[in-house]
Known about the structure:
Helix content is 32%, strand content 22%. The two termini are 35 Å apart. The radius of gyration is 24 Å and the shape is globular. The protein has 20 helices and 28 strands. Among the domains are: 124-275, 3-Layer(aba) Sandwich (Rossmann fold), CATH 3.40.50.980; 533-653, GMP Synthetase, Chain A, domain 3 (2-Layer Sandwich), CATH 3.30.300. With 658 residues, it is α/β, with parallel strands linked by helices. The strands form seven sheets. The chain has an eight-stranded mixed sheet with strand order 11-10-7-5-6-12-13-21, sandwiched between helices. Strands 4-3-15-14-16-17-18 form a seven-stranded mixed sheet, sandwiched between helices. Strands 19-20-22-23 form a four-stranded antiparallel sheet. 5'-O-[(S)-butoxy(hydroxy)phosphoryl]adenosine is lined by residues 276, 321-323, 398-401, 423-428, 448, 513-515, 527, 530, 541.
Amino acid sequence: MAGSEKTSVLLEETRLFHPPKDLVENSNVMQYMKKKGFKTEKELRTWASANLEEFWGEMGKEYATWFKPFDKVLDWKPPYSKWFLGGLINATYNCVDRHAKGAKKDKVAYIGVGEPLGDVRKFTYGDLYKEVNKLANGLKSLGIKKGDIVSIYMPMIPELPIAMLACAKLGIIHSVTFSGFSSKAYGDRVIDGGSRISITVDGFWRRGKVVPLKESADEALLTAPSVEKQIVYKRCGNEVKWNPRDIWWHDLVKDQSTECDCEQLDPEHRLYLLYTSGTTGKPKGIEHAQGGTVVGCPQTLHWVFDLKDNDVWWCTADIGWVTGHSYIVYAPLSLGVTSIMYEGSPDFPDFGRWWSIIQEHKVNVLYTAPTAIRMFMKAGAQWSDKYDLKSLRLLGTVGEPINPEAWIWYRTNIGRGELQIMDTWWQTETGTFINSPLPTTPLKPGSCTMPLPGYNTEVWDESGHKVPTGEGGNVVIMTPYPTMLRDFYKDPARYMKTYWEHYWKVAPGVYLAGDKGREDADGYFWIQGRIDDVLKVAGHRLGNSEVESAAVSHPKVAEAAVIGKPDEVKGEVIIVFAILRSGVEPSEDLKKELIAHIRKTLGPVGMPEAVYFVNDVPKTRSGKIMRRVIRAKAMGQPVGDISTLMNPEAVDGIPKIV
Ligand code: WT7
């Protein structure tokens, strides 16, 4: 499928891709605009973002069903916001019960595509209702109650959302760990949450092999004495070691009732914790609320991806990340649409797998990540060309800036040269898209366009002024919104410090997103990457210092500095500069051993591309590792003024790696 569009990156800022007329006319957002009498998208964006309470009050009624209506939309005492005060709600009621008890009872909620060919399991809303209720009753029988935290370590099978929804139904806070993370990562999260229950599987399929996840879960629980019971879903039937605390999922739910009442909750009641990386070595538990989630998530999905009742939606993220929490679980289920969930690897048995799934299940809207697009670009369009992708009508991307070349490839080869691409900029902290096109928006490849209606973002300089058009600065979010993070679990001081302190003196309540960006003359935002020491490896967020502490946990390593090196497919790959303990001989075997050690400590996402042994790393006088300087030297770029460093001579010892 040859595209007509040029791929020259030099033209990136001038190319404009207008949406086709019928997309605009039939779009969900256009119906809203007509109803309200807005003539242009800009009018809508401006009005909604200036009249937050009126706008979100309307959305709160439109998208969610309340046991008791709210009587106040917002209480904003920076840095804390409360939404929909006085209301009573339940996220699972909104995602499952109201559909199962209505016209969508027999509509498919999830098409669970297992990795083995032909392994497809469909769950209707009615099925979900029963399964969620049985598990919720099972959880109750174990003595778990509202406000408790349950830890979940599961792969991409429908039982994962079932477990989350069972928790939410009872007002239990779920804490999901990505199944590609290590046992240590899971253990840390279980300990932090003080969970009494862990939910996992025997194993799951990845590239044709069983990954024995229960082994990792068991290892994690060795360090987590709070766990009384572990529920194990039998996915692969692989042999597992059984401990007295283990209970099979099928045994737990066997005699449970398929009815279970929802807890009627304050909308601020916490729905989940999700850990994400920051500047320090310790991931932070981001808290999200029940009410905001089932308003903001469905509303943004409905407007941005324009989902219609009969659409099949596929968000390819893992539920272990926020993208999956919001846009595989809470948003599509609230809207009552059909979603694909795929368990396995995109290249199994070959690079045609995703495209075969789209053909077979007639997927209409595809939402994926730049790293995946670049991988397919590298593999070649012959894989997607083999399949009929005509069902697709809209595309999307998230996770990192998308380079215009990959954008054009995506549009040309997956989008028949005609589909619009929704480049959504947001974060674990925000819970929903913040800057994003609407189906009505003309697109510029590589830009996430502008703040959605009901959101306000700007680009600021260090002193708290908006930078002139076209200049770079810090991306800030100016106003609260229903899905914003509520706090860091057990660490409000760090919450304040990470996001709010930066501009507190000039503008209390302005949120520092941690990204650099600029806004062009048309108001389009261009995100340029992180300002803090956070890596983006294949779209996954990892702190440089997390990898450093994993390296230093090897007994032969004294100190380590980690940088990201640009990579064609993954965006960035991890490079480790390690200082060995005295008396340890550097060797190629030791490099391999260290790579394996870090992979084991952090999981496959944290695996370094390369290790270099050095005698020293440059530091400030206060002892902070100067990763910026190391990176410049390693990449063969000018290192700038290093005269104020504690040990400027260390820079000479950093090898050039490109
Ligand atoms: C960081 C947040 C939001 C779900 C996935 C990542 C980067 C995300 C984009 C985009 C440019 C993007 C930012 C952001 N990012 N989407 N469309 N364009 N950059 O969630 O792990 O919390 O990472 O991902 O740097 O701050 P996350």
